[in-house]
Amino acid sequence: LRMKILIILLLLPLSAQAIYDQDNRVDLYKLDDSKLENLSKAVAFQIYKDELRGWTFQRYWTIVTRPLSARGVCENERFADQSTMRNDCSGVLVGPKTLLIPGHCITEHYCWNDLFYFMFNYHQEDGSTLNLERHKDNFYKCEKVLKRVYDSSTAMSYALIELNREVKGIKPVKISKNKMIGKNTELFVVGHPN
């Protein structure tokens, strides 16, 4: 088995995205590699607070979504009927309560003003419809921005943020110190909504 490298953070407008060559995207429940599955579970999705409805005494929220087809993806394309949230930002857990996300997805203002939650486990458990009702324990707040770099002239964009509490049941991803990616290295991408 060749070593695979996880590239996790991409943010492009939906209208500018395209799949070239073979479209080999899969849902998390279809993975047959436990290492890839564990890496995928470390992905968090940024969700606007106004995309949550129905706070109840049981402390559940229902996520407001639309299918990808309502966001400009052709209806005959794969995954066009899947539910998506409005925001396109995702990140990866790199410490017990440290999240690595694109720098253009967060600012100190957004963090301090509590505009977003970060949510884990936004995936189908099987081939059935995605469960949009989630317990509050799935949602984390930005406690503070530890480091943020965003330079549009160099395309350098990342931020490390501290969440309001440790993420239980999900193993943080180790970041490679190897800065070189070999020419024939196999890559994979994990993210939402694409």
The number of distinct β-strands equals 14
Low-confidence stretches: 1-16
Write down the overall geometry: globular
Beta-strand level of the residues, as a percent range?
25-35%
If helices are DSSP runs of H or I spanning 4 or more residues, what is the number of helices? 2
Describe the structure.
The chain has 194 residues and is mainly β. The protein is 7% helix and 31% strand. It contains two helices and 14 strands. The protein has helices at 34-41, 108-112; strands at residues 4-7, 43-48, 52-53, 60-63, 66-67, 83-84, 90-95, 98-101, 116-119, 133-135, 139-140, 142-151, 156-163, 186-189. The chain has a seven-stranded antiparallel beta sheet with strand order 11-9-2-7-8-13-12. Strands 3-4-10 form a three-stranded antiparallel beta sheet, with no helix packed on it. Strand 3 and strand 4 form a beta hairpin. Mean pLDDT is 80; it is low at 1-16.
